[in-house]
């Protein structure tokens, strides 16, 4: 098992891709802390995943809350090996209609969150000899999609933060990479595209694999970036989009 004995924190792990990542990490032998603002859903997901999973209430925008979660893990397990900065808010709004309040809301969760997370976990990871951080960006951080104003901006910036952190933390044994999902099944996608639209084959004409991805397919890539299988990879983007941005 590739993550045997590792301790991982997955933000936004209460549902969607984060929950699939939690399940995949546990299958590989890790203990997983699901850190989410969604308390009922987070507790229920952790309970479904069994004794290798636990829930910690965390608003990723709150620096003190990060410190509390990391100290609790340090006390409980004496180690912290993996952070997946997965929590995010999605929003579609044209540039000229976007408000500063909405921009700030997305910046807080999608960018300040991962920034605080990296700073909170790095000392603990370094003390244990190293670790792996996976920042979940989006193909909206590879392209200039119309109306992905605040969301796209945060996802582009997260790729930059990944490279900066990779450069700074390499000498502590910490690798930092970016996972870049395309259209993945789940509530975030259905909020952007109506079900009947993406059931049509033409909806996928720009995607060589001609379908949406599954959360388990993103989770498999997250396991790779978190595990020693990617031991010589840092500061990189791993695109999981069925080929959409390779050809579009
Ligand atoms: N679904 C897609 O098609 C898609 C495509 C590209 C990238 N992504 C990225 O993948 C990641 C997961 O997407 P998903 O579709 O599973 O999302 P989702 O909306 O299903 O889940 C997001 C989770 O983040 C949590 N969250 C929101 N704000 C938070 C906060 N302040 N603190 C802690 N937790 C918070 C939510 O409670 C929720 O559990 C996100 O980073 C998203 O931007 C998704």
UniProtKB/TrEMBL annotation:
Its EC number is 1.1.1.-. GO terms for molecular function: oxidoreductase activity. Signal peptide: none annotated. It comes from the Bacteria. It is an enzyme of class 1 (oxidoreductase). SUPFAM superfamilies: NAD(P)-binding Rossmann-fold domains. Keywords: Oxidoreductase. Belongs to the short-chain dehydrogenases/reductases (SDR) family. This is SDR family NAD(P)-dependent oxidoreductase. It comes from Nocardia jiangxiensis.
